[in-house]
Amino acid sequence: MSVLKLVGVLLDYPREELWQHGEELLAACDDPALSAARRQQLRSFVQQLLDTDALDAQAAWLASFDRGRSMSLLLFEHIHGESRDRGQAMVDLVETYRRNGFELDARELPDYLPLLLEFLAHRPGSEAREWLHHIGHIAGMLAARAAEREL
Where do the structural domains in the chain lie, given as residue ranges? Predict the structure, then answer.
């Protein structure tokens, strides 16, 4: 499992399968592309999550990401808000996914950050870095808001 996929899994709503794949998640923390300090931080975060009761983890996720737009994991909400441009951006993103053999589950909108990270985990590194550069300001904003709220 790549680090991008791992981060996507960790940002997604914590389903029961997460605990079933704990060893795989912990192993993914050892990516040599990360510094030793980052690997340890990521491993500690994953272990803490795995040590948390599923219902408590789900409640914490809902409190963090499911209340209002400011912490939304829907990227285009931060870019386009409720404008008509958002719909076209979603259509374009779905087309990008399909062109690259990535089929969507009807459950998530295409701009859902964990879904985009899963897609990027299957793309060449240079392409993934370019996408991450484009959404970096949103990720930074979410991180700053999470820190303000001590999430």
Answer: 1-67, 68-151
